[in-house]
Each structure stands twice: as C-alpha cells, then as structure tokens.
C-alpha cells in the first residue's frame, strides 16, 4: 500500500507500535529496512533520526532524564521479583504465566511510582504508555530493561541481550535463538485461546497490524475505534440477528465505501472490522433484546422502544449515530428513546440532564421516525432513585469494567436492576473480565437468563487489541457477555 484515497501516508501508525519500539516516537513512521530507527539515550523510545529526536526533545526531556536513575533505583527489586517466578531450571522458560503477568503489572506500578517520585509529578498519558508497553520475551518474559539491569548488577562487560521481533508479525518478541525455538511453535502453529477463528497468536498479531494501518487510513491518523459507519438503508421488516453475523454487513460496506474498493479484499476486511468496533453496540442491543424476549416479538412492534445505556462515556457519545441501526432494523418502531446514564457524561453533555433529539438520516425523517436522546450525568442507581416506576426495554452496560473500578457503585446499580426486574445485559472485553463480573452478579443473587452466562458475544467487535499487561492476551470491545437477566 503506497497511496490511499485520503492521501495519508499509510505508513503512519498509531501509538501501539511506537510503544513497542517499532515506530518513531515522534513522527510515528514504522521501522523498516531503510528506516531502522535510533534508540534514545533513555533506551525506552525510538526515533527515525536526530531530527525527529530533536523535534520531540522539549516534551520527552523530563522522562528521558530520570529513566536511567529510576532503573538503577528499583533494579534490584525488579530482578528479585522476576527470579521468584517459577521457571524451567535448565531453559529459564517461565512455567507460571499467571505469575509472570502479575510481575508485569507490578513492574509497571513500581517503575511508574519511581519515575513520579523523581519527577515530583504524575506521569502524563504519553509517558505512562512508554512505561506500560515494553516488549517481553515470549518464553522467559524478560524485557530489554531487565537484561540491562541484570548486566549492570552483575558488573558484566558483555553487551546485554536485546529482544528481537518475530520475523512474521513483528509484534511478539524473543531474547535468544533457543527461546525462539521454544516459543515459535506455539506462537505460529497453535490456535490462540483468544481467537474466535482458530488463529494463532502470530496471525492475530498480523491482523492487529492490518487493523492499525487500516484505521490510520480511514480515520485520518486517529486511533482504532474512531471510524464510525452508520449503514444507510432501512429494512422492510424485522429479521433475526441471531442467524447472521458480521459478514452480513460486507455488501453494504463495499457499496458505501466504493472509493476504498480498489485497496483490495484484505483492506475491506479490515474496514469491516473497524466498522464493527462501534456497530457492535446497536447489534448487541438488538441481539440481547431478541434473546431475552424469546419467541415473543412484541418488542419489535412497539411504538416506543426504550433503551438505557449505563456507564455511558466517550466511546458511546462519540459514535452515537451508530445507534440509528436499531431503528433501521426495526421498521415498526416509531421512536427510539436512547438514554445514556453515566457519571462521566458531564464532560460531553454538560452537568445538567440533556433531553434532545438526534439528527437521523433522510429516510427516517421522511418516515417520521425519530430518536429521542437523553443524557444523565450520574450513576444509574442515582437515576433510578428518582424514577421508581421506570422500566426500560433494556438496560445495557458496555465494557462496564464493574469488577475493576467503582465496584461498590456498580454493585448498587446491578442489584437495583435485578430487584426491579429490568431486562439487563453487561459486556466485557475478554473472558477473564466476564468471568470475574459474573461471579459478582452471582454473589448478589442475580439469576442469569439461560443463554446469557459468560460467553462470546456474537456481535462483539472484530477489532483485536493486544493487551499490554500480558504477552499473549487480546481483548475485543463487547467481545464477551458477562451476564444478562430480566
Ligand atoms: Zn520519525
Ligand atoms: Zn529518551
Ligand atoms: Zn527469553
Ligand atoms: Zn509472529
Ligand atoms: Zn435512518
């Protein structure tokens, strides 16, 4: 790919590759044979050349100055923690990956804290990314920084090992030939437990790369997820979304984005995955309404369909037009009432409740069908307290993270939902999170709908995201159902 209809250099890629050290930290240009990248003095970021380094120096100088000191200060502690992870005695291959993941999270915390103490201020987002995304060897889990610390503490004069990327995907790493031989077969031949299509980790990495490059082209340099496609056609009647999948959207996508068709099938596949990132929300709503209502299709014929989106935040707000897909698939519904409720909404819709109407497509206007939009900047139980009789057709929380943050607040919310018998659904971005959340729901006495136990969401996003805290995990927006009930 050398050119694109938008004229944006497809080699410009977003921060994930930058953070893995395979793209320039300043201009984002990818590492290639003619552009091998120079390592900065701090050894944690890379640049095309001294010009790119100079251009970024005014902002990077602070982190750069303290990184080496930080490594010296916490080096011993990190190394001791690393060696306490169980390994094969001869090969040093890690045998307990759970402990390795814990170590990775702890390392990030320790290094961040040390850097913040040295700087006397919290790290800004860009700086936190540099700390949180170090490449790890697939077999032993070590990073370049650990090898350096090890060499320095042992006062060895030999050059410390440097991680090399897998030659096929460039997104997984190994420290030496023998560790590559150990990890290679699993990485290249075994289906990853995080794949729906039996892809190997190497193939999933390659897909991530394609998605990153595609999103650079279609959303003008912004991150994955900022491309929003609202299909503009109205169905003649409701038809089930249980027997179909994302392939059903292919034809419409090709038609809507003719300008990109010349980029080829692989690119259009990546574009469909990009579209699924946000379309996953309305489709998950339709799918869960269908599952929860079973054979009773009265909900498809209501004049007013009332949906509550809990913990709504930037993602929901920034892609709000995709929710029109709900009315496009439900031609008998005259008004969709879409109510977003979440404590962070004040940043987008102001501190007071907002009651308005969304701009719809001309077909919807012509057929006098509308979307009423309400935004309440508060938690759901605060919202419900004032409206005791309110019962929407569905209350849904996308990637709520209710097992990670605001645990108590979420608990009050899902307990209230269950008590009031509100049809509800919670999604998560991976299996671990979904299982954790389902345990919390269980403990609150919630009885799941038989089909809505932790499971893959057929309408989860197709965009895979590499998990920075592990060396093998991926996540997908709404990829998992944590639980659903009524
Ligand atoms: Zn550069
Ligand atoms: Zn630096
Ligand atoms: Zn290794
Ligand atoms: Zn690979
Ligand atoms: Zn419309």
TrEMBL record:
GO terms for molecular function: zinc ion binding. Residues 24-64 form the MYND-type domain. It holds the Pfam family zf-MYND. It comes from the Eukaryota. Keywords: Metal-binding, Zinc, Zinc-finger. This is MYND-type domain-containing protein.
